[in-house]
């Protein structure tokens, strides 16, 4: 309930902020997209519940009970363990994102997220259910290997969800504030480059929370070539009304 309350509060806050301070004009009706994204979110939630024993918090509690994983072997101060876990998990989520782009089998599902022709806070919820299942399995394996504290995993999930909504939001930040924030964190302007139809821009700025990974692995691109307001969002082959259709998104990975 705490996690759900935080999620709904952040969703409402960013939706309100982007309505007052929009960065770009929309190209598709908000209502149609939001209904589609709500439907995808419901299915994703149901799929996650079916994976109940493999959810990260459940796995973390089980690993702690069994004494599995690195952090259940070493005796570090709690504050240090939480800090290291947050950084390591963020780096591994960056790695997962790169894999989903570069391995064709995974890209078939991840492109549902990228087919969205607008970008706003609800885009952070737009993931194919099979991608959600693969992501859960990936995170469960990481948790078994690392054995982090349940609280650290809970905190990471809150940060990941909140930052995903923040950097997908159609939010206009003052440019000095954007430059300051992106020294450490991924901002909406930084992540929006990742949703450009230009191939080199799509394959950049993979981070969700910390911006350091893109700088370390040279996948950082400061701005789109066409500019933030004139860039085209989505995938070049799907510049139609189809990306806002619910069933089309569910079928997309299986299209020839």
Give the SSE string.
HHHHHHHHHHHH
Shape: globular
Rg for CA atoms = 18 Å
Question: Which spans of ≥5 residues are poorly predicted at pLDDT below 50?
Answer: none
Number of helices: 12
Largest sheet: none
The chain-level mean pLDDT equals: 94
Assembly form of the protein: single chain
Q: First CA to last CA: what distance?
A: 41 Å
Beta content = under 5%
Based on helices, strands and strand pairing, what is the structural class? mainly alpha
Q: What percentage of residues falls in helices of 4 or more residues?
A: 55-70%
List how many beta strands DSSP finds. Answer: 0
Summarize the structure.
This protein has twelve helices and no strands.
Keywords:
globular, mainly alpha
Mind explaining what this structure looks like?
Helix 3 (56-66) packs antiparallel against helix 7 (150-168). The protein has twelve helices and no strands. It is mostly helical. The radius of gyration is 18 Å and the shape is globular. 35% of the residues are buried. The protein is 60% helix and 0% strand. The termini are far apart. The chain has helices spanning 2-20, 30-50, 56-66, 78-102, 104-114, 129-146, 150-168, 175-181, 188-194, 199-202, 212-216, 246-251.
Task: Give a topology summary.
Blueprint: H1 2-20, H2 30-50, H3 56-66, H4 78-102, H5 104-114, H6 129-146, H7 150-168, H8 175-181, H9 188-194, H10 199-202, H11 212-216, H12 246-251
Helix pairs in contact: 1-7, 2-6, 3-6, 3-7, 4-5, 4-6, 4-7
């Amino acid at each position: 309930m705490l996690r759900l309350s935080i999620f709904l509060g952040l969703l409402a806050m960013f939706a309100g902020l982007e309505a007052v301070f929009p960065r770009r004009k929309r190209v598709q009706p908000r209502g149609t997209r939001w209904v589609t994204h709500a439907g995808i979110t419901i299915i994703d939630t149901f799929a996650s519940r079916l994976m109940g024993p493999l959810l990260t918090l459940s796995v973390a509690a089980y690993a702690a009970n069994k004494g599995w994983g690195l952090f259940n072997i070493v005796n570090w101060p709690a504050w240090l363990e939480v800090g290291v876990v947050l950084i390591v998990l963020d780096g591994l989520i960056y790695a997962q994102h790169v894999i989903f782009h570069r391995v064709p089998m995974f890209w078939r599902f991840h492109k549902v997220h990228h087919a969205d022709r607008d970008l706003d806070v609800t885009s952070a919820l737009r993931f194919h259910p099979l991608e959600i299942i693969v992501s859960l399995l990936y995170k469960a394996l990481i948790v078994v290997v690392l054995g982090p504290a349940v609280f650290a995993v809970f905190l990471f999930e809150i940060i990941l969800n909140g930052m995903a909504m923040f950097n997908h939001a159609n939010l206009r930040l003052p440019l000095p504030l954007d430059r300051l924030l992106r020294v450490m964190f991924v901002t909406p302007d930084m992540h929006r480059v990742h949703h450009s139809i230009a191939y080199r821009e799509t394959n950049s700025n993979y981070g969700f929370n910390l911006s350091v990974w893109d700088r370390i692995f040279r996948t950082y691109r400061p701005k789109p070539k066409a500019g933030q307001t004139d860039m085209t969002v989505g995938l070049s082959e799907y510049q139609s009304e189809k990306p806002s259709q619910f069933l089309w998104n569910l079928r997309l990975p299986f299209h020839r």
